[in-house]
Design brief:
Chain A: Residues 128-424 form the NADH:quinone oxidoreductase/Mrp antiporter transmembrane domain. Chain A: One of its GO terms (cellular component) is plasma membrane. Chain A: It is found in: Cell membrane; Membrane. Chain A: Keywords: Antiport, Cell membrane, Hydrogen ion transport, Ion transport, Membrane, Sodium, Sodium transport, Transmembrane, Transmembrane helix, Transport. Chain A: Its main location: membrane. The structure holds two protein chains of two kinds. By secondary structure, chain A is mainly alpha-helical. Helix content of chain A is 71%, strand content 2%. Chain A has 35 helices and two strands. Chain A has a two-stranded antiparallel sheet with strand order 1-2. The longest helix of chain A is centred in the middle third of the chain and has 33 residues, at 333-365. Chain B is mainly alpha-helical. Chain B contains three helices and no strands. Chain B has helices at 2-20, 25-47, 67-98. The radius of gyration of chain B is 19 Å and the shape is elongated. Classes of the chains: A mainly alpha, B mainly alpha.
């Protein structure tokens, strides 16, 4: 079964969508789209049973065989889990969007084409085994995300958010490409599986850490980790189905996927462990801390997504520690990867449903501003229930799936201090403390989100619309996700065995061969251990702080605006635009003189330094012609003429002097035995001087005041530099002739072969006649150009037209 | 003689560059004229100035001046003349349309930035 082509099914469907949109106006286009992810989801579920037993599948087609580039789909536990998330949540999001987007007012064909394009890109990212095709799909997710964020392209904020996310994710994508290329050079293959197989040799390579950091940059930008998270809150300008799908459940997890996929290659490095764990934890804290500052429902959810992605990232980093501890020790690091994947699934369920609820609230009340909302519980009871489930799960409360993963997370962070490599035994104590504080904030913003929206006083006069419950179709998708949240709590081990364990085998192949090797059983009740007390502490402190929220929330506004990362980004953009503009204006002056100075200075510096470095200067007195009296006289006349041009006050004088220079050049030609040259030079100099006089005669009256050329030192220095350079080059070139002239051949054969006595003329029309042909062409073009210049007066005509129009 | 010519050519180049950096359009074209003179003399000098007879076949002469640089210069003279003539008419038209020959005033308009 060549399932590699499954990846392209959404893209092919996208080709048909615009026609369906135009031809079938009665039915919402989304219904046709819905079939695609549903079919794909059922196709991918057929892999489940075999992957559960540790099998993996490969299917590929050649793309550019000569460069060894192919699109390879590799399905193991990790990629299957992601494929199911993409298609499963994709189906629910399409269903939700059918009720969310109005078929008469919205450009539905654009929306669904972008969405299907994104689905192909995302499936390609998670299934690609070839790094180049992985990069190809990775950038396709960036582009389709850009298009989806800017879907309402008439709004300024949408365009700003789309551009910002594009800049940041494409920056990361390019860095990642660099990492891939380094990795492929080190391992001599583009296949990730083959790289994993040769991972132990890669660790000693000098580029190893570079490729590690570059690939992590790609993962961090895509997964909105610190400090690259800033694009995610601005991406909330996208329609809510897009936010639910891309910016909570799938695309932002592409970075997590990348980290998980490359863990077997990089886990041996302490850089990997420190960066992934540390940045993840920092992001977790930062996101949860600033989520409380937001007043926009989707803003809260965006920061909460950032924070939860950080949590998963830090667990993946802790999972990489297992590479150093080995299978024998009963260490928790073996389970950190399990916890990461488990929380990844949980997060996709509850965050998807929360986004959909935020969209419903927006849709039914007309605002997402939490200060205007309140008391919606009685009006929107179903939405409230789902929001409550999602928020409690996000806060980590039983009986919801977030509780289970939160406990595992705390266990993982607590055990980091036991790890005695890479200075973790000294700094490790910080990890559980930061994690615990972040969890307290998570608890507060979860409560803040749900209770500020649904309880308290209703403010109907602030709302643009009369609030009421959403249509049932819009509630189906969040309801399904909400019931999954509860179901996973009660039967966690089904998900654990079927989905999570095969994925963990893919992340930690050095520990496990088949999913059955993982002896882990998720328990809701695991005894009165330290994690339980930490959870109780979170709930108590979190509730206390939530109750006093109105007292201390204004403190957030005291935070100086000038030091935020958004300000840094804006400043960088400003500097790159305005700064380069100023730089360009600085040297692109618009004066021809400036550019000539640049060019001449460049010529002088390059030539002189080359002559100096290569020690090429030489004067040879071996084959010189004798200096004769007449020649010296002519040289003096020529120099005098040139000086006259430079010093002349009137233009007429300088033109006459130029004529004098031309005639002395002609005399040189006479003396140096070049009769044809002398003839031509005399005629042409005469005509040129006549032309100069013509131009002089037509000078405009107002500028006729004559003045001497002002002496300018800068110009003089450049000019002297050029003169000296030419002299040096001429002397050196003449002194170091390597081969004799080929002219003896012409001299011998000119009469015999060509039947002529004037060697120069025979060369011009016989030996090298092509030169002459095109020199004639040059003259023809010049004369035609001159005629055209004089006769065509287009601007004048335009002025006449303008007058007639008036 | 070649060494003297090298200095003469260097001087021509220097004067040409100095004129090309000036403000007046006419002086710039004069500068290009000097530059082409310098280049032509440079080609001739680099070919060698030893020959004692013009390159026209005649009995008893073996020491001709090198004909190849002369052919090259002849071509170059004609081409530079064509270009100079075109430039001059262009300058003449620019005077007519713009009413100035000051290069500092010919900077396009602000819209074209």
């Amino acid at each position: 079964m060549s399932f590699v082509y499954f990846i392209f099914i959404p893209m092919l469907a996208a080709l048909v969508i615009p026609f369906l949109y135009k031809k079938v106006r009665g039915i919402h286009t989304g219904w046709f789209v819905l079939a695609v992810p549903v079919i794909l989801f059922s196709l991918y579920t057929t892999f489940l049973s075999k992957v559960k037993n540790g099998e993996s599948f490969t299917s590929s087609f050649e793309w550019i065989p000569s460069l060894n580039i192919s699109v390879t789909s590799y399905i193991d536990g990790l990629s299957l889990l992601f494929s199911l998330l993409i298609t499963g949540i994709g189906s629910l999001v399409v269903l939700y969007s059918i009720f969310y987007l109005d078929k008469t007012r919205e450009q539905l064909h654009n929306f669904y084409v972008y969405l299907l394009l994104f689905m192909t890109a995302m499936l390609g990212v998670v299934q690609s085994d070839h790094m180049i095709s992985l990069y190809f799909f990775w950038e396709l997710t960036s582009i389709s995300s850009f298009l989806l964020i800017g879907y309402w392209y008439k709004r300024d904020r949408s365009r700003f958010g789309a551009l910002k996310s594009m800049m940041i994710t494409v920056f990361g994508g390019l860095m990642m490409l660099g990492g891939f290329v380094l990795l492929s050079i080190m391992g001599d293959t583009y296949s990730i599986r083959e790289l994993i197989a040769s991972a132990p040799e890669l660790g000693n390579h000098e580029w190893f850490v570079w490729s590690l950091i570059l690939i992590l940059l790609g993962a961090f930008t895509k997964s909105a980790q610190f400090p690259f998270y800033i694009w995610l809150p601005d991406a909330m300008e996208a329609p809510t189905p897009v936010s639910a799908y891309l910016h909570s459940a799938t695309m932002v997890k592409a970075g997590l996927y990348l980290v998980a996929r490359f863990t077997p290659i990089f886990a041996s490095s302490e850089w990997w462990i420190w960066l992934v764990t540390g940045i993840g934890l920092l992001t977790l804290f930062w996101g949860s801390f600033f989520a409380l500052k937001q007043t926009d429902l989707k803003g809260i959810l965006a920061f909460s997504t950032v924070s939860q992605l950080g949590l998963i990232m830090s667990l993946l980093g802790a999972g990489a520690i297992s590479f150093h501890t080995g299978i024998e020790e009963d260490s928790i690091f073996k389970y950190a990867a399990f916890a990461a994947i488990f929380h990844l699934v949980n997060h996709a369920t509850f965050k998807g449903s929360l986004f959909m609820i935020a969209g419903i609230v927006d849709h039914e009340t007309g605002t997402r501003d939490i200060r205007k909302l309140g008391g919606l519980m009685s009006m929107m009871p179903i939405s409230f229930t789902i929001a409550l489930i999602g928020s409690f799960s996000m806060a980590g409360l039983p009986p919801f799936n977030g509780f289970l993963s939160k406990e595992m997370f705390l266990t993982g962070m607590l055990s980091i201090q036991d790890f005695n490599l890479f200075a973790f035994d000294t700094w490790g104590i910080l990890f559980p403390i930061i994690a615990w504080i972040a969890s307290v904030f998570t608890f507060i913003y979860s409560f803040y989100f749900v209770f500020r929206t649904f309880t308290g006083k209703h403010k109907p006069d602030l709302l643009p619309k009369q609030a009421h419950e959403a249509p049932i179709g819009m509630l189906i998708s969040p309801a399904i996700l909400g019931s999954l949240v509860v179901a996973i709590f009660f039967i966690p081990n089904v998900i654990g065995d079927v989905l999570v364990k095969p994925a963990v085998v893919a992340i930690q192949p050095y520990l496990y061969d088949v999913p059955e090797d993982i002896h882990i059983h998720i328990k809701a009740w695991h005894g009165p251990n330290i994690e339980l007390w930490m959870t109780i502490g979170i709930v108590l402190l979190g509730y206390l702080l939530y109750a006093t929220l109105s007292k201390w929330q204004p403190l957030y506004n005291k935070f100086p605006q000038g030091f935020t990362l958004n300000r840094l980004y804006d400043t960088m953009m400003f500097l790159s635009e305005v700064g380069t503009n100023r730089l360009t204006r600085f040297y692109m002056t618009g004066f021809i003189r400036s550019y000539l100075v640049y060019m001449f200075t460049g010529i002088v510096l390059l030539t002189i330094s080359t002559v100096f470095i290569k020690e090429a200067f030489d004067i040879s007195f071996a084959t010189l012609a004798p200096i004769r009296f007449y020649e010296l006289i002519i040289a003096l006349v020529l120099i005098a003429g040139t000086l006259t041009i430079l010093l002349a006050k009137s233009r007429l004088t300088s033109i006459i002097a130029l004529g004098a220079v031309g005639y002395s050049v002609a005399l040189f030609f006479v003396i140096f035995n070049a009769p044809d040259l002398a003839l031509t030079q005399l005629v042409i100099e005469t005509v040129s001087v006549a032309l100069f006089l013509l131009a002089f005669y037509h000078l405009p009256k107002l500028n006729r005041h004559e003045n001497r050329m002002k002496f300018r030192l800068g110009n003089a220095l450049v000019a002297i530099g050029v003169g000296v350079t030419v002299t040096i080059v001429a002397l050196s070139a003449h002194s170091q002739k390597l081969v004799p002239s080929i002219s003896s051949y012409y001299e011998k054969t000119v009469y015999k072969e060509a039947g002529g006595g004037n060697i120069v003329n025979v060369i011009l029309v016989d030996y090298r006649g092509f030169d002459t042909l095109f020199e004639i062409a040059v003259l023809a073009i010049a004369s035609l150009g001159i005629i055209a210049l004089i006769q065509l007066r287009l601007t004048k005509k335009k002025e006449v037209n303008r007058i007639e129009d008036k | 003689m070649e060494i003297v010519m090298c200095f003469v050519i260097g001087f021509l180049f220097m004067a040409a560059v100095y004129l090309m950096l000036s403000k007046s359009l006419l002086r710039i074209i004069i500068g290009t004229g000097l530059l082409s003179h310098g280049a032509h003399l440079l080609i001739l000098t680099m070919g060698g100035l030893e020959g004692s007879a013009p390159p026209v076949v005649s009995h008893g002469v073996t020491d001709y001046a090198d004909p190849l640089p002369q052919a090259l210069i002849l071509t170059a003279i004609v081409i530079s003349f064509g270009v100079t003539a075109f430039f001059l008419v262009l300058a003449y038209r620019a005077y007519q349309e713009l009413g100035t020959d000051n290069m500092n005033l010919m900077r396009g308009t602000e819209d074209h930035d």
